[in-house]
Amino acid sequence: MTDSIPFTPEQDLMLDMIAQAIVRRGMSVPAVFFMQTLKPLNFIGSQALVFFGPVIESIFPKNGIYDFAELMENRDNVDRLMAKIEALESKKDENAVDKKTANKKFFGKNKVKEK
Q1: Does 69 map to a domain?
Q2: Structure confidence by residue, pLDDT tens digits, 53-106
Q3: What secondary structure letter does DSSP report for 110?
Q4: How many whole angstroms separate alpha carbon 77 and alpha carbon 15?
Q5: DSSP characters for 1-31?
Q6: Residue 3 lies in a domain
Q7: Cα separation of 71 and 66, whole Å?
Q8: Torsion over CA of 101, 103, 107 and 113, rounded to 10 degrees?
Q9: pLDDT tens digits, one per residue of 31-41
């Protein structure tokens, strides 16, 4: 199922938005675990999304459900999404460490006590 379908900038932007939403909600580990587990079924999942599209659109606002279903048909895009999530999560972790170090320096916790 890994057809050589061209990857467009719009699809890359959609993957970025999805990855940012997942990382922002703190769901990186469950999302990657879920995608890794169900990766062999991605085509079936995308077709189920198309099938249930009208119901989903009646409950949730229209935000490119069919574009996302088309994007997830290709297994390479699942790998791209997981890579984006992992990259954003590692960047978030690096920023947290930098912020913690800056706070220690600001509050004077990094000073060495003299005897």
Answers
A1: yes
A2: 888 888 776 677 888 888 888 889 999 999 999 999 988 877 766 666 666 666
A3: T
A4: 8
A5: ----PPPPHHHHHHHHHHHHHHHHTT-HHHH
A6: no
A7: 8
A8: -10
A9: 999 998 888 88
